[in-house]
Fold:
Amino acid sequence: MGPKAAVKARVSNKVVPHESATESGGAPRHVVDNTQPSSGGTAFKSNRSEMETYFDKLRLLDKIDNDTVGMKGIAQLMSDINIPNNTIQSYVLLWQFGASRNSRLSRSEWVTATYTYNVDGTSQLKLALNEWVSKVGNDKHLFFEMYSFLYDYLRGEHSRLMTVECAVAAWEVFFPAHKTLVQLVQWLKKEYSGSISRDLWRQVYFFLQAEENHNIQEPDTTRWPTVLSDFCEWRKTHFKY
Structure:
């Protein structure tokens, strides 16, 4: 078996539960199980050393502290594995690494992830990421867990609630070209002056799924939070079905 085949063979299709709830209530996440028993202590130590050395290289780009990769380091990580920032691929990566602070990756999150997935270099990380993205794209339960988990990361470290601007930017990545989202964004920008709570963030997901799955013409506004009910009433006078 050649080197590339060996790497691919290590990327399992198995999905296993992995508890990583944030203190503020982030949802537990599931991970793609890339782990295999170590063939020896020396190889395991070598894998750890390579990825921790890489972590320190990324960390030095921001110089926040000895245990944190910041915005520049995360951008470099994305560049090294050839994925644009603020894309579904970058969101999946941050979710799988358990990133819970905006523009931050801690050493403990990094070490836990690289050990859990048995990742020993950026080439293997890119292969694993392709597998994770495929899994999330084909499993609505995994997608929702990722979506829920990333609320804390996306809202910003110094904000208790997410701003509309931040939520809209993320929704356009999670739900590209969704007709109802386009209308909702118009309403939020024109009529809404509040923030996006964790509950509203989750309810928007269910609302968009309901409209997509059932092609609702006149949705039952009583089943949704007041914000979404107000949007539905506004939409009746601004859009024809």
User: Anything to note?
Assistant: Strands lie at 15-18, 29-32, 68-69, 105-106. The domain at 159-238 is CATH 1.10.238.200 (Recoverin; domain 1).
